[in-house]
């Protein structure tokens, strides 16, 4: 395992899900490659990580909803506009749809991290916005997959199952007592722990 993170394998060997479940996904580092020390402003900068589109096509048959929740403080910092971000998301959704997948909604927070009362994960605000649009979402029957500790805290605060993925894998981040249910290399690896 990377850093000090370990997985409590006694907690569950497989995650049993059915079509009543919702999959929540972080964006950068999970669906697409991160742009180091910057923000993705144009579709030409959006690079899907290997196997993600195919995996999302598979997940679209397993889960009732797939929801993307993403912190995008580049808006507050003036690096990109909401229109630019939405064009990037339209491109992302179009590519996933063309590959046979379905993204039901994308919820983002453009607030700065130092703004009081911001909606950024780990705040549950983005999940509540999704639930307001999709009333059948039950957080007790939801899985959060992200590449940062804020994603895991977001999931835990809502009673979701959580999986930490990606290159960073929480290294040098203090997770305290809030550990993910699984730590895996990438989004395609998540299929290996799902039992339909």
How would you characterize this protein structure?
- With 196 residues, the chain is an alpha/beta fold.
- It has a single domain, classed as Rossmann fold (3-Layer(aba) Sandwich).
- 23% of the residues lie in helices and 16% in strands.
- It contains four helices and eight strands, in the order ββαβαβαβαβββ.
- The protein has helices spanning 52-62, 82-98, 125-133, 149-157; strands at residues 15-16, 22-25, 65-71, 105-109, 142-146, 161-164, 182-183, 194-195.
- The protein has a six-stranded parallel beta sheet, covered by helices on one side. Strands 1-8 form a two-stranded parallel sheet.
- Strand 5 (142-146), helix 4 and strand 6 form a beta-alpha-beta unit.
- The relative contact order is 0.22.
Which short descriptors sum up this protein?
196 residues; alpha/beta; Rossmann fold; two-stranded parallel sheet; 16% strand; globular; disordered N terminus
CATH superfamily: HAD superfamily/HAD-like
Question: Distance between termini?
Answer: 26 Å
**What does the average pLDDT come to?**
90
Main beta-sheet strand count, sense and barrel state? 6 strands, parallel
CATH class: Alpha Beta
The helix fraction, in percent, is 10-25%
Can you name the CATH architecture?
3-Layer(aba) Sandwich
Order of strands across the main sheet = 4-3-2-5-6-7
Structural class: alpha/beta
What is the H/E order? EEHEHEHEHEEE
Strand proportion, as a percent range, falls in 15-25%
CATH fold type: Rossmann fold
Annotation field: number of helices: 4
- How many beta-strand runs? 8
Please mark out the parts with pLDDT under 50 across 5 or more consecutive residues, or reply none: 1-11
Number of domains: 1
The value of Rg in angstroms is: 16 Å
* Overall geometric form: globular
């Amino acid at each position: 395992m990377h850093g000090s993170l370990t997985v409590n394998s006694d907690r569950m060997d497989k995650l049993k899900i059915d079509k009543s479940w919702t999959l929540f996904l972080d964006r950068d580092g999970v669906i697409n490659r991160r742009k180091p020390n910057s923000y993705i402003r144009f579709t030409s900068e959006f690079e899907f990580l290997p196997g993600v589109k195919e995996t999302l096509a598979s997940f679209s048959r397993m889960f009732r909803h797939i929801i993307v929740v993403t912190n995008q403080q580049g808006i507050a910092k003036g690096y990109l506009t909401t229109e630019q971000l939405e064009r990037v998301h339209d491109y992302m959704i179009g590519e996933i749809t063309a590959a046979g997948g379905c993204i039901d909604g994308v919820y983002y927070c453009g607030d700065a991290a130092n703004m009081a009362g911001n909606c950024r994960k780990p705040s549950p605000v983005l999940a509540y916005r999704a639930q307001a649009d999709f009333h059948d979402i039950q957080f007790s029957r939801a899985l959060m997959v992200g590449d940062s500790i804020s994603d895991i805290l977001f999931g835990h605060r809502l009673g979701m199952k959580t999986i930490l993925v990606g290159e960073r894998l929480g290294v040098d981040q203090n997770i305290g007592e809030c550990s993910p249910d699984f730590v895996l290399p990438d989004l395609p690896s998540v299929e290996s722990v799902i039992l339909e």
